[in-house]
Amino acid sequence: MLIYDNVKKICSEKKIAISEMERDLGFPRSYICKWNENEPGIRKVQKVADYLKVSIEELLSIEAG
Predict the structure, then answer these.
(1) Burial 22-60 (b: 16+ CB within 10 A, else e)
(2) Does pTM surpass 0.85?
(3) Which residue in 24, 29, 37, 42 has a CA-CA distance of 20 to 30 Å to 51?
(4) Is 14 left (phi over 0), alpha (psi -120 to 50) or beta?
């Protein structure tokens, strides 16, 4: 399960830059791209899910989208 890959795919579909989302959410630069190596906390995942208007399950699924 690669959370970052799912986030990247959903951002691409919604025409949202990951760097823009990180800035809007107050995350450090390049924070989300490290999610494949370091699993994020559930609160961070929820913030991203809310921002993208998707469920946490969609971010965590192997076949997002």
Answers:
(1) beeeebeeebbeebeeeebeeebbebbbebbebeeebbe
(2) yes
(3) 37
(4) alpha
Give the distance between the most distant pair of CA atoms in the chain.
Answer: 27
Level-2 CATH architecture, domain 3-60? Orthogonal Bundle (1.10)
Tokens (6 digits) for 11: 């951002």
> How many residues are present in the chain?
65
What does each of the 65 residues of the chain score in pLDDT, given as a tens digit?
A: 588 999 999 999 999 999 999 999 999 999 999 998 888 999 999 999 999 999 999 988 865 44
